[in-house]
Design the sequence.
C-alpha cells in the first residue's frame, strides 16, 4: 500500500485521494459493485489504469478515470485521451533530472 515518507521528522503519506474502494466507486459511477467487478473481469476496465489490486482481496479504483469512463462511454477515443494524460502524469513517465558534473 502507501509507504510513509519522512521529511524533516514529519511523516506524510502519498496522496491516495484518487483511489477509492468498490463502494465509493459504485457511487461515483452510478453502478453496482457487481457491475464494476464484471467490467474488471471482462477487461472493460484495465488493471493498473482503472483499478489496482493490493493483496488478494483489496481492489481500488481510479476515481478520476472511472468518472471519465462512465461519462465518455459512447466515445472511447475521448476516454483514451484521458488515460494517456493520466499515464503521462505518472512520476515513472517523467524525464529524469541529472546533476551536472563540475569540471
Sequence:
Amino acid at each position: 500500500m502507501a509507504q510513509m515518507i519522512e521529511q524533516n521528522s514529519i511523516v506524510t503519506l502519498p496522496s491516495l485521494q484518487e483511489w477509492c474502494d468498490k463502494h465509493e466507486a459504485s457511487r461515483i459511477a452510478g453502478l453496482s459493485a457487481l457491475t464494476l467487478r464484471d467490467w474488471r473481469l471482462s477487461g472493460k476496465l484495465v488493471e493498473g489504469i482503472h483499478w489496482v489490486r493490493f493483496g488478494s482481496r483489496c481492489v481500488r479504483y481510479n476515481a478520476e478515470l472511472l468518472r471519465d469512463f462512465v461519462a465518455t462511454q459512447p466515445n472511447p477515443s475521448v476516454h483514451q485521451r484521458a488515460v494517456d494524460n493520466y499515464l503521462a502524469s505518472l512520476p515513472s513517465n517523467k524525464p529524469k533530472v541529472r546533476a551536472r558534473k563540475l569540471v
Remarks:
- Confidence is low (pLDDT under 50) at residues 1-16.
- Residues 17 and 85 are 18 Å apart (CA to CA).
- The longest strand covers residues 58-62.
